[in-house]
Amino acid sequence: MRVVADTGICQGHQLCQGEAPDVFGFDEDADVVVVLDEHPDESLRKDVTLAVKYCPAFALSIEED
Fold first, then answer.
1. Neighbours of 12 (CB within 10 A)
2. Nearest to 47, CA basis, from 11, 12, 36
3. In which element (H, E) is residue 52 found?
4. 3-state class (DSSP) for residue 64
5. Can you tell me the distance from the alpha carbon of 9 to that of 1, in angstroms, rounded to the nearest whole number?
6. For the residues of 4-51, what is the DSSP string, one character each?
7. Distances (CA, A) of 53 to 25, 29, 42, 47
8. pLDDT tens-place string over residues 14-40
9. Mean pLDDT over all residues of the chain?
10. CA separation for the pair 2, 30 (Å, rounded)
11. So what's the pLDDT on residue 65?
């Protein structure tokens, strides 16, 4: 899987960090999400899926390889 973040629509809620802190970080200067691991281990799929699901701005997605 490949994790994608659209920083153009990210609103800086940081909920993704709570769901998958090993995959998502935050750029405080730009007030947007940062993808720390674009291709996380399959064991993190559930956490990443929840982060995508609960993103209020719909700025996150998963692309299958």
1. 14
2. 36
3. helix 45-54
4. coil
5. 21
6. EE-TTT-----HHHHH-TTTEEEETTTTEEEES-SS--GGGHHHHHHH
7. 17, 25, 17, 10
8. 999 999 999 999 999 999 999 999 999
9. 97
10. 23
11. 81
